[in-house]
Amino acid sequence: MNRIEGVHHVVLSTAKMKEQIDFFTDKLGMELVALYWMHGVKNTFHCFLRLNDESSVALMTNPSISEIPIAIGQTHPGNPGANSAPGTMQHLALKVSDKDALLAIRDRLREKGVPVLGPMDHGMCVSIYFAGLEDVSLEIAYSEEPINQKAWIDPEVVDLLGISNNELQSYMKPEDYLGHQGGCKQPDLDSTEGPHMSNYPEGAYEQVLSMPDEIVWSMVENKPPVEVENG
């Protein structure tokens, strides 16, 4: 079906790796499952905090990150309803199973000194809101049933965005894609179609993206930093 099935991990930049690990483990009860040198990135640590066996919140840090200024309303919204720059993360919502789990997490946060807003009933989900370290805006939510497209797509907003009926139908149910068994070639890197990744040293983007896929497959170390015996 070629469908995206969920979020594998979301990565947050941090200048305070240890403090962030402490926050997510102590305040939210998440398990640290990986902490190592980030593959292919110089002088950078990477960590994974477990949501479930297939999903994580990840962190990355290096000495240069502390030199980048935070500008509330630009780099960070400061709260879940405020603006931030296009392309930035406005807030991160984490999932729990039901109301009891949500209230238990709220108790845990408040007992550990973190102010929490909510629960708030949005209809499609019930949420609480609070601040993470380094001005990250966080939400925890649960839903009792899947979101009903027919109920939650507002015709007024569709019209205001200039979305035609044909476009809306394609957005609601994208066509399946059969693929080419991994044989589709890289598009023209000089094309304006993109979008293209940025913030590479001059010439590095073209050099890296022009590599054969077989070379990219083996570019980084894929063994864990600690050897563990099976069983």
The third-level CATH topology of the domain at 1-68 is 2,3-Dihydroxybiphenyl 1,2-Dioxygenase, domain 1
CATH architecture of the domain at 1-68: Roll
Mean pLDDT, rounded to whole units? 94
CATH homologous superfamily descriptor of the domain at 1-68: 2,3-Dihydroxybiphenyl 1,2-Dioxygenase, domain 1
| Low-confidence sequence ranges | none
Radius of gyration: 21 Å
Spatial strand sequence of the major β-sheet:
1-4-3-2
Helix content: 10-25%
Total helical elements? 7
Structural class: alpha/beta
Dominant shape: globular
Give a short account of the largest sheet: 4 strands, mixed
SSE arrangement, N to C: EHEEEEHEEEHHHHH
End-to-end separation in angstroms reads 36 Å
CATH class category name of the domain at 1-68: Alpha Beta
Can you put this structure into words, describing what you see?
The chain is of the alpha/beta class. The protein contains 7 helices and 8 strands, in the order βαββββαβββααααα. It has a domain of 68 residues: 2,3-Dihydroxybiphenyl 1,2-Dioxygenase, domain 1. Helices cover 23% and strands 21% of the residues. Strands 1-4-3-2 form a 4-stranded mixed beta sheet, with helices on one face. A 4-stranded mixed beta sheet has the order 5-8-7-6, covered by helices on one side.
Write out key terms for the chains shown.
231 residues, alpha/beta, 2,3-Dihydroxybiphenyl 1,2-Dioxygenase, domain 1, 4-stranded mixed β-sheet, 7 helices, 8 strands, 21% strand, globular
Question: How are the elements arranged and paired?
Answer:
Blueprint: E1 9-13, H1 17-27, E2 31-37, E3 45-52, E4 55-61, E5 92-95, H2 99-111, E6 117-121, E7 126-131, E8 137-142, H3 149-152, H4 155-160, H5 165-172, H6 204-209, H7 213-217
Parallel strand pairs: 1-4, 5-8
Antiparallel strand pairs: 2-3, 3-4, 6-7, 7-8
